[in-house]
Design a protein that fits this description.
This protein has 512 residues and is mostly helical. It has 22 helices and eleven strands. The protein has helices at residues 24-40, 60-71, 94-106, 117-129, 145-153, 201-211, 227-237, 264-269, 277-282, 287-295, 310-316, 331-344, 347-360, 368-371, 375-378, 387-392, 404-412, 421-437, 443-457, 461-473, 481-488, 490-511, and strands spanning 11-14, 43-46, 110-113, 159-162, 169-174, 178-183, 191-193, 216-220, 243-247, 250-251, 327-328. The strands form five sheets. The protein has a three-stranded antiparallel β-sheet. A two-stranded parallel sheet has the order 1-2. Strands 5-6 form a two-stranded antiparallel ribbon. The longest helix is centred in the last third of the chain and has 22 residues, at 490-511. The structure holds glutamic acid (GLU). Residues 15-17, 49, 201, 205, 219, 223 line the site of glutamic acid.
Length: 512
């Protein structure tokens, strides 16, 4: 395919606050930012926004990095890698923010505020009582700059606030939604620098995006409301603005209400994997499938194509096809994509990925080599990697137990089988004797033998094969029967079948 004309290299960033685990919303923001950078030959930056010390969760930074790497979203610059625009953790850039906040004071776009907590609390209560949103009343805007400076130098506790214009309006442009106009009187005198010397998100994000030469700011729609403030700050500093892209929200699977981290618990109770990337990983989803799934929430290529690899996405992603409408999280689609990507893996690769899942399921000895012959039997049948050991774990058992329920469920009561126990028992005894003669023990010979028997016994092959399956494996669902028996080997197949027949004999005896 012809390459499209190279566009200007984009510098994008993912700027999570380390206040919790990486969730699918964050992962999508990171993915789109990454795609744009890769597509244009630019850079993708990871910046940790850890200025809210009260909400800091120490392990979350590692979780975010691990999750991104697992998805294949690798950054070019970041706290662990360094880079020419570092440091990439805001707590390590603290001194910088005071400098820029003071620059705004000098330029007359910000002011020192000495209001006590109590005073602000009174204002807040009054606003609540009057049923209007709280806004700072501008008390300290009126302090003459000289006096304010003296009070700061004398060590009086203070914050720095943005001096929001009181008149007029501002028009800001979001790439997805177009121009948005806001009245300036609706913009608060936001705090830029807190009394502990830490910047607020609003100041830090603007300063860092500017200093790091970020060309496209992609983030969640939840930042749309403070977006005009950020543009005001850019203009107050006299800096060129980046492109602004606010990605649509994710809705709960029901389509009602924004999905949030707090939904993870009930989702799990309902049997869904949850919203955190590490949960999806543990539940046996492939990173390729997760990437494919989240890429199509809020973006589409042509409204038809659904299978995308990360490479495809780098080539095909475009800002123009981002959608403002929120997307409901659909876990059935995730299962669907996981199936597609599992089938697209080379068998050796699937074997490699299955190994840890067999280990966790209680088969610690299993190697990639052991799984190679099994993969062709299950690749078409599994939806997640955890299905692997569920479907094929028995290959690594020396012995199994046959429950009477298995015979009941899969032979007697199964709608498509409906085989009574005495008939099954009689037929299986003949099968056992005939199987003893099979040599060599290959899938082809096994199939020929069992098909001939189905004729001979006048028993539909579906019925007979189901009976053999339960008698051998103790279960109603397994990989294809003849391959399964071949792989188990003659000795194990016959030994297990004998045990199955014993269970069956007891059932028939008690029934009769
Ligand atoms: N630290 C903010 C967050 O975690 C980043 C928002 C942005 O990308 O500007 O939501």
């Amino acid at each position: 395919m012809e390459k499209s004309a190279p566009s200007t290299p984009a510098r994008t960033r993912f700027a999570p606050s380390p206040t919790g685990w990486l969730h699918i919303g964050g992962a999508r923001t990171a993915l789109f930012s990454f795609l744009l950078a890769r597509q244009t030959g630019g850079q993708f930056i990871l910046r940790i926004e850890d200025t809210d010390r009260t909400r800091y969760v120490p392990e979350s930074e590692a979780d975010i990095m691990e999750g991104l790497r697992w998805l294949g979203i690798e950054w070019d610059e970041g706290p662990d890698k360094g880079g020419p625009y570092g440091p990439y953790r805001q707590s390590e850039r603290k001194a910088l923010y005071r400098k820029y906040a003071e620059l705004l004071v000098e330029k007359g776009h910000a002011f020192y505020c000495f209001c006590s907590k109590e005073r602000l609390e009174r204002l807040r209560r009054r606003a609540r009582a009057e049923g209007r949103p709280f806004r700072y009343d501008g008390h300290c805007r009126r302090i003459p700059p000289e006096e304010a400076r003296r009070r700061v130098e004398a060590g009086e506790p203070h914050v720095i606030r943005f001096k929001a214009p009181r008149e007029g309006s501002i028009t800001v442009v979001d790439r997805i939604r177009g121009p948005i106009t806001v009245q300036n009187r609706d913009i608060d005198d936001f705090i830029l620098l807190k009394s502990d010397g830490y910047p607020t998100y609003h100041l830090a994000v603007v300063v860092d995006d500017h200093l790091m030469d970020v060309t496209h700011v992609m983030r969640g729609e939840e930042w749309l409301s403070t977006f005009p403030l950020h543009v005001h700050l850019y203009r107050a500093f006299g800096w060129p603005e980046p492109e602004w892209i606010h990605l649509s929200l994710f809705l709960k699977p029901t389509g009602k209400g924004k999905i949030s981290k707090r939904d993870s618990e009930w989702l799990k109770e309902k049997g869904y994997a949850g919203v955190f990337v590490h949960d999806l990983r543990e539940a046996g989803y492939l990173p390729e499938a997760v990437v494919n799934w989240i890429a199509l929430m809020g973006w589409s290529y042509d409204d038809r194509t659904e299978f995308f690899t990360l490479e495809d996405l780098i080539e095909k992603f475009s800002l123009d096809r981002l959608k403002p409408a929120p997307a409901a999280v659909n876990f059935d689609k995730l299962n669907h994509f996981n199936g597609l990507h599992i089938r697209a893996l080379p068998p050796e690769e699937l074997a490699r990925r299955l190994v840890p899942f067999f280990h966790k399921a209680g088969y610690p000895q299993v190697t990639e080599q052991d799984l190679l012959p099994i993969v062709p039997l299950i690749q078409e049948r599994i939806h997640t990697l955890t299905d692997g050991p569920e479907l094929a774990g028995f290959f690594f058992e020396e012995d199994i137990t046959h429950t009477p329920e298995a015979f009941e469920t899969f032979l007697v009561k199964h709608k498509k089988v409906k085989l009574d126990l005495p008939t099954a028992y009689q037929a299986l005894q003949v099968v056992y004797q005939r199987l003893e003669q099979v040599d060599p023990w290959t899938p082809e010979n096994l199939e020929a033998t069992l098909r001939a028997l189905s004729e001979e016994l006048g028993l539909k092959s579906r019925k007979l094969f189901s009976a053999v399956r339960v008698a051998v494996t103790g279960r109603g669902v397994s990989p294809p029967l003849f391959e399964t028996m071949a792989l188990l080997g003659k000795e194990r197949t016959l030994r297990w079948m004998k045990k199955g027949l014993e269970t069956l004999a007891q059932m028939v005896a008690t029934e009769g």
